[in-house]
Amino acid sequence: MTLARGRGERGYEAWALRLLGDVASHPGRPDVAMAAAHYGAALTLASEREMRPLLAHCHLGLGRLYRRTADAEQAGAHLTTARTLYGEMGMMYWLEKFEKG
User: Fold this and answer.
1) Number of alpha helices (DSSP H) and beta strands (DSSP E) in the chain
2) pLDDT per residue over 60-76, tens digit each?
3) Going by C-beta distance under 8 Å and a sequence separation of 6 or more, which residues neighbour residue 18?
4) For the structural domain made of 2-100, what CATH number should be given?
5) What is the per-residue pLDDT across 16-43, written as a single tens digit (0 to 9) for each?
6) Does residue 95 register a pLDDT over 90?
7) Domain residue spans in the chain?
């Protein structure tokens, strides 16, 4: 992430932030605040750059994170957004993976 940021490669930085969110939200020892911060930063960069697949992945990560923390309202909102984005983009692999749980 630091390397991408230093080179002005904001798209790669966004992907790196999403991966950091995935790591921080690991089911074994989730750091909810850190994961949410990384996903949020990735969402901001992805939105600015119209990186819709990354937006969907971040919403999926946040939805799964909030589902594990029993925040049903936030989980539902993010999961619905992810499902909608995957469907609109025709990302059938991810839509099928999403539907399976």
Assistant:
1) 6, 0
2) 999 999 999 989 999 99
3) 38, 39, 42, 46, 54, 57, 58, 61
4) 1.25.40.10
5) 999 999 999 998 889 999 999 999 999 9
6) no
7) 2-100
